Amino acid sequence: MIQMLTPKEKKRRDYILNGNLWKVVFYISAPLAIYGLFNYLYGFFDLIMVSYIGGNEVASVVFIDEIKNAIMAFGGGIAAAGTVIVARHYGAGNIEEARKNALASLALALSVSFVIVFLTLLFGKGILKLLNAPVEVIEAGLGYFNIQMISTTLIAVNSVFIGLEKAKGNTTRILVINILAMTLKLILSAIFVFVMGKGAVHVALATLIAQGFLMVVAVFIMFEKNNSLQIKISEIKIIPKFIFPILSLSLPVFTGKFLFSMGKVLVNSMAAIYGPLAIAAFGIAMKLAGGPGSIALIFEESETSIVSQNLGNKSLPRAMKTYVISNLYALVIGGIGIFLVNHYLDSILPLFTTSTDPIFNQMIKDIYFWEKFSTLTSATIAVITGLFIGFKFTKISFFINIIRLFVFRLPVLWLLQHFGVGYIALGYVMFISNLLTMIISFIFLGFFYVKVRNHGYLDMHLE
Prior knowledge:
Layout: H1 7-18, H2 21-51, H3 55-92, H4 95-122, H5 124-130, H6 135-167, H7 171-195, H8 200-223, H9 240-271, H10 276-296, H11 298-312, H12 316-343, H13 345-348, H14 358-371, H15 374-390, H16 394-406, H17 410-418, H18 425-455
């Protein structure tokens, strides 16, 4: 079966399975980390550009982008499950099985995303009202909302493509193509806002065009004959034999990711009592912490594919060691990122707002003081979750997200608001929920390690 791989693919596969693991994790993660940083800059510059339009526009972008992230969780969850299954077969050398599961992942992602996007477009205004979006946000952002929802369909296809390339360990290709798409997006946004004087709707349109470009390239690569996981139009079908394993694996993942993202939407909804400026300040504070976080979190994605390939190759100790290395890298890089943002905070902050209101600027700083710790805690949670996903224990990922949202986030924010804590409660709740969830995640990890050490995993053992 391995003879279906090109010499370059064979070399990369052998490196992932047998190379120095510290170097392997870095090699696979580095392009993804740069991609994650560019992806962050994507939203970073959007917020900067929109800040020149007005405060209500900023609040609407912050509010709606979290809804978009929640919707993207469905395509992302399917892509994550597809990555695990494809990488497992790929590591075992069962390339044809890997290819068939790649086909199923694409078919499932397309079907689910089309249904979800149709519903969100049909009930868009009602959804925003239901989520307690301020009237100003709805008026300024409904057009932005509709275009962003359409773009999630394209993103679903692109997520599957990225997942398949990660399953093969081909992260350099992901980096190059996404940099081209993001550059296109930023140029278009700048032209729309600064040259043509357009608003948030055109910023979303730039995203749609860039994702359309990326999808065209992705489809070309997925369908090319030299691709070991080649997809053929005639074979894109809903086949239960392949769909059900992906669906059962992805259901806890995308439900957990959806609820986690919806948690931020609900926090924004609860933050509405503080007014649009508080929502804007909260969004900017999260964006400031998001730079280091975008790089630190990426180790979950590389870890999952490395773990899956090595489990397919019957290398349990190597799979477990991948977690340790990934978490250490994430903490070091996240810590360096926090230091840099703190050091240059006063220079960065004016980029997000033209307001000279010292109260608004202080709101951002107050919330960011607590939000910045999420870079480390969220990265640790993500890497632990990535290990469980690699082992196909996706239900644990679901429970971790449920606990973070319904135990440590929403109830804590409600209590803080009940006792009259002001807008700073938004910073407190992010710090508390992520810290406590990290502790719970370590407890899950401890029990899992003891079980694997004593009983092994499938027919593999640590010793």
